[in-house]
UniProtKB/TrEMBL annotation:
Pfam (any one): Cons_hypoth95
Keywords: Methyltransferase, Transferase
TM annotation in the entry: none
UniProt-annotated stretches for the region Disordered: 1-22
Gene3D superfamilies per record: Vaccinia Virus protein VP39
Molecular function GO terms recorded: methyltransferase activity; nucleic acid binding
Protein name in UniProt: 16S rRNA (Guanine966-N2)-methyltransferase
Keyword NADP tagged: no
Coiled coil region boundaries: none
Biological process according to GO: rRNA methylation
InterPro entries (UniProt xref): DNA_methylase_N6_adenine_CS (IPR002052), RNA_MeTrfase_RsmD (IPR004398), SAM-dependent_MTases_sf (IPR029063)
Amino acid sequence: MRIISGKAGGRRLATPPGRTQDIRPTSDRAREALFNILGPVVNGSRVLDLYAGTGALGLEAFSRGAVDITFVDFHRQPLEIIRKNISLCLPAGDQTVVSVLRYDLRKGLPPALLGGKAIFDLIFLDPPYSQGLSLKTLQYLGNGNLLTPNGIVVAEERSSESLPAQCEMLHLFDQRTYGDTGFWLYSLHHQTDTSVKERQ
């Protein structure tokens, strides 16, 4: 697994040995397709990577110009891999703000992010498939308090699953399928045009 494009493009990422129920990295193909959809939205953005796993989504965003990335996961192995991948991708002296939080997202959102101090342009959520966690986390995010007015939430789930067209203040404006992987893109506004690039 590698960073697809940008200043860390081609950098190989650490992944868990063998199969693990705690980490299921988004494939390079699906990640490349997603970031092609997001386009210039990523540059200069503040990013929240929930159920971060290897950190590949947040680090791809860094490589493409994100300036502030917060990674959240709960289990020891993914947290260790995230920190290792940060060290692999960020050169010494890089000014990007990077945080790693340990929190069980099944219980809600990390208290450190609440209270109006944190707000993000891009929020990725990539929980274990088919456990109802994508919907639960969308409901936690549904009040919009963590999202900028033009921000985007990207939920990744098994493509055969179904996520709602609206979740409180979040409105679905695009949905894409790449093999077993599905992406659902939400914003705080009802979108009649599915082009992310038109939002700039």
